[in-house]
Each structure stands twice: as structure tokens, then as C-alpha cells.
Amino acid sequence: DIQMTQSPSTLSASVGDRVTITCRASQSISSWLAWYQQKPGKAPKLLIYKASSLESGVPSRFSGSGSGTEFTLTISSLQPDDFATYYCQQYNSYFAITFGQGTRLEIK
Amino acid sequence: QVTLRESGPALVKPTQTLTLTCTFSGFSLSTSGMCVSWIRQPPGKALEWLALIDWDDDKYYSTSLKTRLTISKDTSKNQVVLTMTNMDPVDTATYYCARTRLRSPPDYWGQGTLVTVSS
Hints:
The complex is a heterodimer. By secondary structure, chain A is an all-beta fold. Chain A contains no helices and 11 strands. In chain A, strands 2, 4, 5, 6, 9, 10 and 11 form a 7-stranded mixed sheet that branches. Chain A has a 4-stranded antiparallel sheet with strand order 1-3-8-7, with no helix packed on it. By secondary structure, chain B is mainly beta. Chain B has a 6-stranded mixed sheet, with no helix packed on it. In chain B, strands 1-3-8-7 form a 4-stranded antiparallel sheet, with no helix packed on it.
């Protein structure tokens, strides 16, 4: 199975900050990477697919980049609603999906 | 409007078999490229993909859990069923079903159902 490693595990930031979360794959996954946001007690919400494509309805302050084995999620200017846990997910094989361990974004 | 909803027991005993049903609307599992996945999340932990069934009735399972899982669909009822045998307390988790399409990540998710394994 392809292993996904996110860093950092926890990130403290303030409203208005620019933040970046990194995700590394144990082997090349081309651009078959998605990013999700999850709030407590809620299902994950798809933000980015195919590494850099913004899901419909997601604010443009969210962006994704990368290919191969290294990927980033950037939030250009943190808003209060953005404090949550973020997961990367590879779907290089859509029938053998794996997730990163998550990055908790907390208020500084 | 795409919606999914998971249903099943909230509490199961160790060694029992868990049966969960995903009832969905807004799409058809007979449409080429359409799939449904099951994903779980133990309390305070990361997401774990479990299984997927596609429009052609092909079935795929997590490598680590494949001996315990069975996924099936009833296209006429818009339902997907997941069974997991030999439940253990470590299987305590919120179980989600999600729409998945060929070459796309799960996009629409159910609200999840918490299953606790305890005697």
C-alpha cells in the first residue's frame, strides 16, 4: 500500500496567516491527490482534487500543488472557519485509497 | 442533490458480525464510473479506507482487512451493504460511506455512524 505522511501534525496559526501543509507519498502517485477538511463530529469535506483542482464551492484562499511524491495545501489568509483538521488522500488506485495521518490546525 | 446515509447498530459485541447499510440518492450505481466507498475513523484518529464497489459490481478491499470484509450493492434500492466479521474493540469507529467516481476521490459523504464494540 502507498503510505501518506503529512507534516506538521499540529500547526498553530492566527487569523490572516498564510499556512502550508505538506504531504509526501511513499511512491509516485502522479497528481492523484486530494485534500479534505474535517471539523469535529462532521464528515470530511473535499477541498482539492487532482493535486491542484479546487472543488466547487471551496473558497479560493485554498490551493494545492505538487506531483509525484510531494504535495502542499496552502491557505493564503486564514479565516476563523478554517481551524480544523486537514487530511491528504491518494487515489492513484481508486480501489486502494490511503489517507495521511492528519494535520490539526489550531488557533495560536 | 447527492445524499448518503449510513445505518446499522450502534453497539456490537466482540466476535460478532457488523452489518452496515448505506442508502443513497442523487446518483445511480448502475451508471458507468460510479462507485461507493466505505471509510472509517476511530475516535481521535485518522481516516481509513475499507472497501469500494463499482458500477460493474467489482469489489475492492483494504489489504489489512480483506479477510473480514464483504461489500455488496442493491442497485434497485440504491443501497450498499458492508459486513465486517469478528468485530473487536479496536474496530470502534465512525463508519462513513461516500460516493466515489472513476479517477476521482470520494466527494459526497454520509454523516457517519458510530459503532462501538464492547461486551
